[in-house]
Design brief:
CATH class of the largest domain: Alpha Beta
InterPro entries: Carn_acyl_trans, CAT-like_dom_sf, Cho/carn_acyl_trans, Cho/carn_acyl_trans_2
Number of domains: 4
Pfam families: Carn_acyltransf
CATH architecture of the largest domain: 2-Layer Sandwich
Number of strands: 13
Oligomer: single chain
Strand order of the largest sheet: 1-10-9-8-6-7-11
Keywords: Acyltransferase, Transferase
Strand content: 5-15%
Radius of gyration: 29 Å
Organism: Oikopleura dioica (Tunicate)
Helix content: 40-55%
CATH superfamily of the largest domain: Choline/Carnitine o-acyltransferase, domain 2
Family: Belongs to the carnitine/choline acetyltransferase family.
Structural class: alpha+beta
CATH topology of the largest domain: Chloramphenicol Acetyltransferase
């Protein structure tokens, strides 16, 4: 085991399951069936026909005298295995198309859903690789046009007047009678030719075609746990980065991590995880592009106005170091003093600008061969690490917000917003992340972060007194190559003109946090209600009390139940939610009626 492991006898494979391409039970079942057929001599005529053809072709290589019962038996096993595998694949694909369970309330599960759940659990039991169920995920079908229009009108009813609704109804009828069917037909044809008829357009037009700054507008942040294993910054980030690379190797490369399932039952599409590492959003005129560097083996570290490149894995994704060695490396970076040609000043602020402006500035930057080489290192890295010099205290609301702002936008001049994600470490060991949004949805990076923190807790041990990583490794560090730059003045002058815009965007952001501790999701579940539904109704009630009107509300819905799915939109402001809000604000309404209204929403 690598240095820094908490327990030398810890069986890592106990934490992981090995990949299994085909359920082994099918091989066993095929063998048993073939034996029964052989004993009772009840072989189907189709089997005999196939066997004769197979034996005829292999007779060119094996003498007929060598044919025996073993060869015939092996052919029978193979044919049965192929037949069972085909049935298994078709059955699992068919079962995963059932979505009726989504619309059933808590405690009101139908018999059909129960039978479906048992069948699905049996078919997906056993050891499976991380991406095993990708090819079984159903395609997302285009919904019926008339039903889509009907649901759209229902979502708009609480937001507009009766006159406006009547006009909207006429427009909808006209759409259905004119171009609607033709457009829907074109969409259906597109769904036949792609794995997902939404995802490519979603990425291209929602994200990559947007010309706004990524900072605040698109990129998002996440914070680590309040309790941390060490307050020594370089030790913490070393253990955390090692755990990230360990998870990447186990899950994305080797497929040893159990597949992600919704409610521990329904497999989710794993495709978004592929681009979690080595991806960069490269600016372009009119539209950006996502560049995935699958062969990337290095990370990039930002500290003290310099950028360092560290080779951390080999071509197979195996770590080239122990956590302790990486700790030494970060220590050396912290203690280094870059020279003038190694400092980038506020170059990263370019990624805070509008995409067209950054594309133009980047073109100027890359015109110098040395700068182009250094820029390529930054953009092709697996991910970025930012060593912050300021502490964080997430236990206090004000300090938590301050650290959140450092992770969301920083100074506007220090974070490289084009990268898939950046790990931000405070001077006292707290971890945060800034994540570019176009390559995947928030649930993906949240899942990765949770598993990485578990790995760090299990496999990396820190000394209670010094906070350093415990290990018997020799004191050696990895090579950290500081990136060099030629005459950045022209590029920085272009960025300088835009710095006031960046400052204004940051100052216009209002960010706060609310710690609600009266009750949590487990209490809500005891009410036989959905925690998310309670939150959405709270939003609707609060918004109406502030604005005295209902507002069109967007809530992201998981679409990874389908192959290559991203997200869909839930319009949580409905006629039912509007009725709930009005009932809650009615002084003549008693608690019993309010509770009844609440349950009706769920």
């Amino acid at each position: 085991m690598d240095g820094g492991s908490k327990n030398p006898v810890l069986d890592l494979e106990a934490l992981r399951v090995s990949i299994s391409r085909t359920p082994s039970v099918l091989v066993i079942l095929s063998t048993i069936t073939a034996y029964i057929v052989k004993v009772f001599d009840k072989k189907p005529a189709s089997f005999e026909l196939v066997e004769k053809n197979v034996l005829f072709y292999i007779s060119e290589y094996i003498s007929p005298e060598s044919f025996g019962e073993s060869i015939e038996f092996s052919i029978s096993v193979l044919l049965l295995w192929l037949a069972y595998s085909l049935c298994y694949n078709l059955l699992l694909r068919w079962i995963l198309t059932y979505k009726g369970w989504i619309f059933e309330g808590r405690g009101n599960t139908s018999l059909l859903t129960r039978v479906w759940a048992v069948s699905l659990r049996l078919l997906t039991a056993g050891k499976r690789g991380f991406s095993y169920f990708y090819h079984f995920c159903p395609h997302m079908h285009v919904p019926e046009l008339q039903n889509t229009i009907r649901r759209y009108l229902l979502s708009m009813k609480p937001l507009i007047t009766e006159k406006e609704f009547a006009e909207l109804k006429l427009m909808s009828d006209d759409f259905l009678a004119s171009v609607g069917p033709a457009l829907n037909s074109a969409l259906i044809k597109k769904s036949w030719l792609t794995t997902n008829y939404v995802t490519d357009w979603w990425e291209e037009y929602v994200y990559l075609s947007s010309r706004d700054s990524l900072m605040i507008n698109s990129n998002y942040f996440g914070l680590g746990t309040e309790r941390i294993p060490t307050s020594r910054a370089t030790s913490r980030v070393a253990g955390y980065v090692w755990s990230i690379l360990k998870w990447r190797k186990d899950a994305v490369i080797d497929g040893k991590v159990p597949p992600m399932k919704l409610q521990k039952l329904v497999p989710l599409c794993p495709m978004q995880y592929k681009r979690a590492f080595g991806t960069n959003r490269t600016p372009g005129k009119d539209k950006d592009s996502l560049v995935y560097n699958e062969q990337s083996t290095h990370i990039v570290v930002f500290h003290n106005s310099a950028v360092y490149s560290i080779e951390v894995v080999d071509k197979n994704g195996d770590s080239l170091f122990s956590p302790k060695q990486l700790e030494y490396t970060f220590d050396s970076i912290k203690e280094s003093e870059p020279v003038a040609c190694e400092k980038i000043s506020h170059l990263a602020a370019g990624t805070s600008l509008s995409r067209d402006k950054w594309a133009s500035i980047r073109e100027t930057l890359a015109s110098d061969p040395q700068n182009e080489e250094s820029l390529a290192k930054i953009e092709s890295a697996l991910f970025h690490v930012w060593l912050d010099n300021a502490p964080a205290n997430v236990a206090k609301p004000a300090s938590m917000v301050e650290f959140a702002r450092r992770c969301l936008h920083g100074t506007g001049q220090n974070l490289w917003f084009d990268k898939c994600f950046s790990v931000i470490t405070s001077s006292n060991g707290h971890i945060g992340q800034n994540v570019e949004h176009s390559w995947a949805d928030g649930a993906v990076i949240m899942h990765i972060t949770e598993e990485v923190q578990v790995l760090e807790h299990l496999l990396v041990e820190y000394a209670p007194d010094t906070g350093k990583i415990l290990s018997n490794d020799a004191q050696s560090s990895l090579k950290a190559d500081v990136l060099k730059w030629n005459s950045l003045e022209k590029t920085l002058v272009q960025i300088d003109k835009e710095l006031p815009t960046i400052t204004d965007e940051i100052s216009n952001l209002s960010l706060s946090q609310l710690c609600f501790s009266k009750f949590g999701k487990n209490t809500i579940k005891k009410w036989r209600l959905s925690p998310d539904a309670i939150c959405q109704m709270a939003f609707q009630l609060t918004n109406f009390k502030i604005r005295n009107k209902f507002s069109m509300t967007y809530e992201a819905a998981l679409a990874r139940l389908f192959k290559d799915g991203r997200t869909e939109t839930i319009r949580s402001c409905t006629t039912a939610s509007a009725a709930f809000v009005k009932e809650m604000l009615d002084s003549n309404s008693d608690n019993r009626c309010q509770n009844k209204k609440s349950k009706k929403k769920n």
